[in-house]
Amino acid sequence: MIRMYGFWRSSAAFRVRIAFNLKRLAFQEQMIDIDAGEQYAPAYRALNPQAAVPTVIFEDGTALTQSLAILEYLEETYPEPALLPADASGRARVRSLALLWAADFHPLIVPRVRAYLAKALAQDEASRMAWVRHWLREGLTVGETRLAGDAHTDSYVHGNAPSIADLCLMSHAIAARVFKVDFSDLPTISRIVETCLARDEFARSLPMRQPGAPLQ
């Protein structure tokens, strides 16, 4: 069985979890408690020198890190259902939007950045939360601008089936909800988020439904 080292709150692990569920792949997730520093344990750093999640070990022993690389590998090795469009321009659009959320905005709010703001720059909790909320909101606002009015935007970010871009949007949007960022004024983003949440593959991948998440 495929093994994934993740953490309930990790946006990157959330993306990969959705992909496994959409592709109906059995996997076992072992939680690495980022808050407790388990990612720095020598045994885990031997798997992932970056001391981050997710790390995925496939049945043939292939070990991969970085969520977007894992998603691309899944697409190449388990092509159904497809998470990338069939045409080159569609694939480029989906990758561009995926990178918008996963590469441009997500790195600004990860725990190591928040820890640096606190320890090195002496930013208090209110300032750190303002930072996180600003970048979460900015990512959704830019996404709305790109999606609204684009003929390729439909039920999902691209067309009528979920793609890698939807996985990255969802990881960003759910983080925004956790940090109490209101995006109800972004109609395209809000609609796509609700469309995704109506699907079991997305709903059971949610961070708050994973082992270790606090009781609601």
Notable characteristics:
7% strand, 9 helices, 2 domains, 4-stranded mixed β-sheet, 4 strands, Glutaredoxin, 216 residues, Glutathione S-transferase Yfyf (Class Pi), Chain A, domain 2, alpha+beta
Q: Which strand order do you get reading across the main beta sheet?
A: 2-1-3-4
Question: Quaternary state, please?
Answer: single chain
Q: Round the mean pLDDT to the nearest integer and report it.
A: 96
Class of secondary structure makeup: alpha+beta
Give the overall shape, derived from the CA principal axes: globular
Number of domains: 2
Spans of 5+ residues with little confidence (pLDDT < 50)?
Answer: none
Total helices: the number is 9
State the total count of DSSP E strands: 4
Please identify, by name, the CATH architecture of the largest domain: Up-down Bundle
Rg result: 17 Å
Terminal Cα separation, in Å?
Answer: 30 Å
Sheet with the most strands?
4 strands, mixed
- Percent range for helical residues? 40-55%
Give an overview of the whole structure.
50% of the residues lie in helices and 7% in strands. It is an alpha+beta fold and 216 residues long. The chain has 2 domains: 2-81, Glutaredoxin, CATH 3.40.30; 88-203, Glutathione S-transferase Yfyf (Class Pi), Chain A, domain 2. It has a 4-stranded mixed β-sheet with strand order 2-1-3-4, covered by helices on one side. Helix 1 (11-22) runs parallel beside helix 3 and helix 4 (88-105) packs parallel to helix 7 (164-178). The relative contact order is 0.15.
Short précis:
By secondary structure, the protein is α+β, with helices and mostly antiparallel strands. The protein has helices at residues 11-22, 42-47, 67-77, 88-105, 111-119, 125-147, 164-178, 187-197, 200-203; strands at 2-6, 27-31, 55-57, 63-65.
